[in-house]
Write a structure and sequence with these properties.
This protein is of the alpha/beta class and 262 residues long. It has 11 helices and 8 strands. α1 crosses α11, α2 packs across α3 and α4 packs antiparallel against α6.
């Protein structure tokens, strides 16, 4: 018989920082939600409401994100992987269903691939698609985009809607993601996943993309699905990358139920 976990909200120490975390408790399957690159745990509220109280929902804000998570000297992708393990350890969770949107989907894919004995399964929301989209021109485009946004970022930071990272730190993180996305880097990660994994894909563009760039990236999943029988596309929805958790949260919740059923 599974014991009931009491709901909890607090700070989880890791490395030189601490992360704001919420655990709804209960006796259901633990579901850990991984945010977009500069997003917060609040983005998941509609998915969580759609699934309801029969699941144990664990959300947290990454380093320097949200209102409470502390700053750090390390905002790398590998730090993000360590943060997942720190949150699970702090909440006493051995096995979890892991769900990630955008940047969080990359974290979820890597963590599920590295921890097949601990991952019940993974749901990847419009992210973790192997494609060589980063070149020198794109790198410069990214740096300029964050430089243009730098003037108003400090105005929004008290709201928790933007990270407490400099424009250079944000650009560096985004460029690192481009390198992780490359077929030679991400392809083997996806091929090595052995737990049930489902994609929920958006449509159209995302912040910083032009024309059909995003749809070309999504098309790379055809090869991934063909190579790995554990991975399927659960849904492709009408909303774009930024609005998918708001407008098509039901499709994400359905994918989580699908993975749990497997």
């Amino acid at each position: 018989m599974t014991s009931t976990v009491t709901p909890w909200t607090g700070m989880i120490p890791i490395d030189d920082t601490a992360l704001a975390c919420t655990d709804t408790g209960g006796t259901g399957i633990p579901v850990v939600y991984l945010n977009g690159q500069f997003a917060t745990q609040g983005y998941w509220k509609r998915v969580i409401a759609g699934l309801g109280p029969d699941w144990r929902h664990i959300t947290y804000d990454e380093r320097a994100r949200g209102r409470k998570s502390k700053t750090s000297a390390d905002y790398s992708f590998e730090a993000g992987i360590r943060d997942i393990d720190a949150v699970l350890a702090a909440r006493g969770v051995d096995r979890a269903l892991i769900v990630g949107w955008s940047y969080g989907a990359f974290l979820a894919a890597h963590w599920a691939g590295r921890n097949p004995d601990r991952a019940i399964g993974a749901v990847l929301v419009d992210g973790a698609m192997p494609h060589d989209w980063l070149d020198d021109a794109m790198e410069q485009r990214i740096r300029k985009m964050f430089q243009r946004m730098a003037w108003f970022m400090p105005l929004l930071r008290p709201t928790g809607l933007v990270p407490r990272l400099s424009a250079e730190q944000q650009a560096t993180s985004n460029i690192e993601l481009g390198r992780i996305s490359r077929e030679r880097e991400l392809g083997p990660v996806m091929d090595g996943i052995t737990v049930p994994t489902r994609y929920v894909l958006a449509s159209g563009t995302s912040l910083g993309s032009k024309g059909d760039e995003q749809e070309v990236i999504r098309a790379s999943l055809d090869k991934v699905v063909a190579r790995n029988p554990h991975i399927r596309i659960s849904a492709k929805v009408p909303s774009n990358h930024s609005m998918i958790l708001r407008k098509d949260h039901a499709a994400v919740a359905a994918a989580i139920r699908e993975v749990a059923a497997v």
